[in-house]
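The instructor's notes for this session suggest beginning with a concrete chain rather than abstract definitions. Hand out the sequence below and ask the class to guess, before any prediction is shown, which regions might be ordered.
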Amino acid sequence: MVRLFTPNLQQAELASHYYEIASALPLVCPHGHVDPRLFSDANYRFGNPAELLISPDHYVFRLLFSQGVPLERLGIPRQDGAPVETDPRKIWQLFADYYYLFRGTPTGFWLNTIFSDIFGIRERLSSKNAQAVYDGIEQRLNTPAFTPRRLFEHYKIEVLCTTDAASDPLVYHQAIRESGWQGRILPTFRPDAVVNLDNPGWKPQIEQLSRASGISIGNYASFIQALENRRDYFKHMGATATDHGATSAYTGQLPGSELEALFQRALKDHASSEDARLFTGHMIIEFARMSVEDGLVMQMHVGSMRNHNPALFQTFGVDKGADIPVATEFTHNLAPLLAKFGSDPRLTLILFTLDESTYSRELAPLAGHYPALRLGPPWWFNDSPNGMARYLNSVMETAGIYNTAGFNDDTRAFLSIPVRHEVWRRVCADWLAGLVLSGRVDRDEAEAMASDLAYGLAMKAYRL
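After discussion, reveal the predicted structure:
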């Protein structure tokens, strides 16, 4: 099979060899958003096809929305509780009617591969066959082989990390442990909700953090104590990493008196947007300090303007396909953090961006110098065959592959995991074949690189 390979016979044959090496390896999923509830019960079942493949996936419904399809007709819940479509067959039919929108997109490739490779459906989805395809998927979902745990084992997933709020009690992770199942599902500490002061729910989140940690948060010192308490609990539950999202990569430390005054303004709902920017930048350095001390790998995702469509946000809430990339800058913004911890071997900071223009200009040179830095794979809008190829060509020449973190699928849609890894492994195999044919690496070097890009780099970077 030559899909995603360069249409050159010699290169495609060599790429197939490197893909075979990669495809034999287990899947490592060190960062994603799959709900751990799926694995907490051996008998857990996926919902109907619409609930499985449409409703939870903003990659899918954002494109339909762009063509005028109301989210209510796709069954997306409204904040005000107003009625939305609840008939999964009607939702599926609408999805099929607009399926042509996904032609040539990575989402279309993922969906087509899921239909063919996971559900055995070879005929392309259309208005005419929508209900027959629905029946075929539903029939498979009702078989014993299609429980989340069985699929986890079938697709040779070695480890899967979820993303969990700082105050999350991790009850589903605890249930997985107590069940005796051997699947390795690990939490990841995500404190954004209690760090980003411009989050409308910041105060309630602070109250939840206080309850979860058992520490009354009335000042900055107790806030830090509560965060460290929760990090300890996450580590106890198997976490190896944290995750931090910000619009920019700004870092900078605030003096103690100024910091406490800012925190008190936030507690009184008087914090400004500038306060929020300064506080987030200060906390990124604080989290680096904590990672140096407790060993948790630090991830930083930068460059998304969240909820760009205010009407959509007010009606449906977050994660509804209206997050848009923005230009970012790393060299100056990260300088304060790197001055303190960039050369510290105890810190691993994995950087992600939506601004591809920073790959060769900033990120590759930074990661090619600072021991603490690793580059995450193409993220979100760039998680595509073209985006991966651009990344490999922009980053590897300066940073090399060993200053990257391999691949992670970063998905909410569990069934898309094997497909996303297949795309990465195929694109990498094709890229490696090109390096060999151009005389830049030897064949045995490319074999080792294929293994590392698929498996070894992620295992090492995330300390798994």
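Then share the key points. The chain is about 50% helix and 10% strand. Residues 196 and 280 are 6 Å apart (CA to CA).
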